[in-house]
Backbone:
């Protein structure tokens, strides 16, 4: 793996980082990371370290917000039936639950609809809209879909349905003729929170609606004003799971949303944490790898609305039953995903080296459309190239893609649109549908795009180093201060440090529990001074390298270590541990 020294390793970063660290009261290495990530003034660094809800942008900066608020006000005032039409992924499910929960508290007559992934596919469809119109719905609010549904919104109008679109996927110039479109990516929108997930857009709509209702005198003792801060658990779930950058407004929303998740005041969240064996604090990683996948599993069930019902119920017994359904579906998904991922990796390997194939396209009639996105992510992790995984179903193939730095996946699909019957998404992830007979031509077309846009240097595994440390820098205080940079995720990865003054004074190999991997490397790393190993507690560190068991290291080996800093808490005490990312002799 090639180590790439980031901006935090330069002489300027060392000097400016020390200045910044002194100004905001953090250790110098944290100052270097802040400076390298663009927080170079005291105020911006302080705002990053200490998120506040008043840092959220004015929701009325969203294009279309006034029309959306006015239409919802009218529906609330006249008692019209509102239906929130959501997607089946975590962002769609949480957006739907958020809107339904708050609109009901505002006195609205609100229902929801989640399409079945394998039967109806993604987004609005005419048959579903006909059902909604027949049961008396007059306003449809889409959640995490709709910005490309030009024909469907026209059909809704003919059925007497008004549509407000809430979405965050890349928008074209040809927008649906909805009452309002809320999407930071639509042409002409200058809203500063461009990277919001759909649930973040929905939250800003509710902020604006609450403000207008307050001005109107809507609230009373009988109809109290809702505390939207309590809804941030849903916002955090959807934002993290949709892998949008955890910077700007997203950082603020997730920072406070994780606190709400830790509080567990929502019955559905409490049940979900229980089946995921989570208690107390919840990290972004817990959402991404333990809570989010279980909600996502709802798309594999016959009733795709289970996730929404879980997040809306106030009954603990019902919440546990629904969480158990999702947990079981998630286990089935993991087994299915493992099989498909194995087959997809084997196919992708046969496509050749990056010189032969820069964009991986694999397909099979035996694959489940509900897991192709996760499998695409696995291919990207293993092969470091854009990957598209297609599930063939007769004459139609449905798939999902994930990309790498330097390749805008949605734009590439747009340029290959002649081969696709439907597509949508954004820079890093997208979904598509096409005739099975056209897969080969499509694969060749997107390969041409990849060759034109992708720098070959971006197709090899790299480890980005945020800052270099001396052994004296490493300690529990630094690890605790690094945690102030969390939540970590897309756009704000956990910092990786390097230290080149270490010696392996103890070496142990721990087997992989599943018996399939190379095992883990457990080390005691000490500061080296010439040929003498220093054994003082201040200069000796416990380290764990997950899946690094294939490395052969003799005791006394001199090392350059790349690692993250962790605080291991046990029985009320805290100790430092280095999470090894790579080692070089």
Residues:
């Amino acid at each position: 793996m090639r180590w790439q020294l980031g901006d935090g390793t330069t002489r300027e970063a060392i000097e400016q980082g020390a200045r910044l660290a002194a100004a905001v009261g953090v250790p110098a290495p944290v100052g270097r990371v802040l400076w390298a990530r663009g927080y170079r003034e005291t105020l911006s660094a302080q705002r990053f370290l200490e998120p506040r809800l008043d840092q959220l942008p004015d929701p009325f900066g969203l294009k279309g917000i006034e029309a959306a608020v006015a239409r919802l006000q009218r529906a609330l005032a006249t008692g019209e039936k509102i239906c929130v039409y959501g997607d089946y992924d975590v962002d769609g499910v949480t957006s739907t639950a958020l809107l339904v929960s708050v609109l009901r508290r505002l006195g609205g007559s609100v229902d929801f609809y989640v399409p079945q992934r394998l039967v109806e596919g993604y987004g609005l469809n005419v048959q579903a809209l006909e059902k909604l119109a027949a049961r008396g719905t007059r306003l449809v609010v889409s959640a995490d879909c709709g910005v490309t549904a030009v024909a469907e919104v026209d059909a809704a109008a003919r059925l007497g349905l008004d549509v407000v679109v809430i979405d965050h996927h890349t928008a074209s110039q040809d927008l649906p003729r909805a009452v309002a479109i809320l999407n930071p990516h639509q042409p002409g929108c200058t809203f500063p929170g461009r990277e919001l997930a759909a649930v973040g857009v929905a939250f800003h709509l509710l902020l604006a609606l609450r403000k207008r209702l307050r001005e109107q005198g809507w609230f009373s003792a009988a109809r109290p004003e809702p505390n939207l801060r309590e809804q941030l658990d849903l916002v955090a779930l959807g934002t993290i799971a949709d892998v949008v950058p955890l910077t700007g407004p997203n950082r603020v929303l997730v920072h406070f949303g994780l606190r709400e998740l830790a509080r567990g005041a929502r019955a559905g969240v409490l049940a979900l944490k229980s089946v995921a064996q989570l208690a107390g604090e919840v990290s972004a990683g817990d959402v991404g790898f333990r809570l989010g996948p279980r909600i996502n599993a709802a798309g594999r069930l016959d009733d795709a609305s289970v996730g929404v019902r879980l997040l809306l119920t106030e009954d603990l017994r019902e919440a546990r039953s629904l969480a158990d359904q999702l947990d079981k579906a998630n286990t089935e998904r993991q087994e299915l995903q493992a099989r498909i991922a194995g087959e997809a990796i084997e196919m992708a390997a046969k496509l050749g080296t990056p010189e032969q194939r820069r964009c991986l396209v694999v397909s099979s009639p035996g694959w489940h459309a509900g897991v192709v996105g996760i499998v695409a992510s696995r291919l990207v992790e293993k092969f470091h190239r854009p990957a598209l995984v297609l599930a063939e179903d007769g004459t139609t193939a449905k798939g999902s893609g994930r990309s790498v730095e330097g390749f805008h996946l949605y734009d590439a699909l747009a340029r290959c649109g002649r081969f696709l019957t439907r597509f949508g998404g954004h820079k890093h992830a997208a979904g598509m549908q096409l005739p099975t007979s056209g897969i080969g031509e499509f694969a060749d077309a997107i390969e041409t795009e990849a060759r034109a846009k992708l720098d070959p240097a971006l197709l090899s595994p790299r480890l980005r180093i945020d800052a270099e440390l001396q052994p004296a820098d490493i300690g529990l205080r630094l690890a605790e201060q690094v945690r102030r940079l969390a939540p970590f995720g897309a756009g704000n990865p956990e910092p990786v440090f390097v230290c080149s003054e270490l010696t392996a004074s103890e070496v142990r190999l721990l087997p992989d529990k599943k018996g399939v991997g190379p095992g883990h490397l457990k080390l005691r790393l000490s500061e080296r001074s010439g040929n003498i190993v220093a054994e003082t507690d201040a200069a000796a560190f416990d380290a764990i390298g997950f899946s690094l068991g294939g490395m052969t290291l003799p005791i006394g080996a001199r090392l350059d270590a790349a690692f993250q800093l962790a605080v291991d808490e046990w029985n009320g005490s805290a100790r430092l541990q280095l999470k090894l990312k790579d080692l070089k002799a």
Observations:
- The first strand starts at residue 2 and ends at 5.
- The two ends are 13 Å apart (CA to CA).
